[in-house]
Amino acid sequence: MFISIITPTFNSEKTLKNCLTSVKNQKFEDYEHIIIDNCSNDKTIQIIKKFNNTKLRLISEDDKGIYDGMNKGISKSFGDYLLFLNSDDQLIDQFFLFNVNKILSKNKIDILYSNIIYKKNLLGLSRKYIVGDILNVNKFGNHIPHPGTLIKKKYLINMEYFDLKYKISSDFDFFIRAKKNKNTSYYYYNKFTVLMSPGGASSGFQNIVKANIECFKSLRKNKVRFPLIFIMVKLLRKFSQLL
């Protein structure tokens, strides 16, 4: 089973090396790590070119944001399954790819998801996202986070990639669409696999508001009942996970 790890970058010099190192330290060899760079003007490209990992592939060209980069990664990947890892995130389970390769090789799975940990924020608070089995995922207000999740490439293509009209929450929209697809098959890898940065496109008060407006629009488009209550429950779940 060949796995493609896709990392969109833009001026990521401060965090990228840790991300690259965490992938290289995986106890697994049948993978490629594709960097989709949006014409960075800092040392991002230099870091990638100097990094000692022959499994790295760099594509640097203009794109329309993170989800356009992720879609490019899908189309240019060779993997049977794809893992999207942000440039400021790190894999913390060195046996993650080794273990899931065994699982994916023996089972018919569209989406394999795991638990993630958020780095401490400015208030010194961290957050553990224990997703739970599929019954928990299907609970009102709950959804799968895209870090720590492997998705079958053919499934992504059949689902028509990430919708670019959502600038911040297209991953949320994708997993809502996946949830509505009754043929979607899931597997819960019940371990912490990714240390995720609290930054990113959905951080900051204004972007949090924008992200949840997009989530609301996605819920309405997908005809999920009581979308506003869904958003409120989703936010309450986040607060309950703070440490």
Highlighted features:
243 residues, alpha/beta, Spore Coat Polysaccharide Biosynthesis Protein SpsA, Chain A, 9-stranded mixed β-sheet, 9 helices, 9 strands, 21% strand, globular
Explain what the structure shows.
The chain is built from nine helices and nine strands. The protein has 243 residues and is α/β, with parallel strands linked by helices. The chain has a single domain (3-240), classed as Spore Coat Polysaccharide Biosynthesis Protein SpsA, Chain A, CATH 3.90.550.10. Strands 1, 2, 3, 4, 5, 6, 7, 8 and 9 form a nine-stranded mixed sheet that branches. Helix 2 (44-50) links the parallel strand 2 and strand 3 (56-60). The mean pLDDT is 90.
Name given to the CATH homologous superfamily: Spore Coat Polysaccharide Biosynthesis Protein SpsA, Chain A
What's the order of the H and E elements? EHEHEHEEHEEHEHHEHH
- CA(first)-CA(last) distance: 37 Å
Which structural class best describes the helix and strand composition? alpha/beta
- Beta-strand segment tally: 9
Number of structural domains: 1
Helix content: 25-40%
- The gyration radius over C-alpha positions equals 17 Å
Helical element count?
A: 9
Class in CATH?
A: Alpha Beta
Q: What best-fitting shape do the alpha-carbon axes yield? A: globular
Instruction: Kindly identify the CATH topology.
Output: Spore Coat Polysaccharide Biosynthesis Protein SpsA, Chain A
Please summarize what this structure is.
With 243 residues, the chain is of the alpha/beta class. The chain has helices at residues 16-24, 44-50, 66-76, 96-106, 134-137, 153-158, 170-180, 205-221, 227-240; strands spanning 3-9, 31-37, 56-60, 81-84, 90-91, 111-118, 127-129, 150-152, 186-196. The chain contains 9 helices and 9 strands.
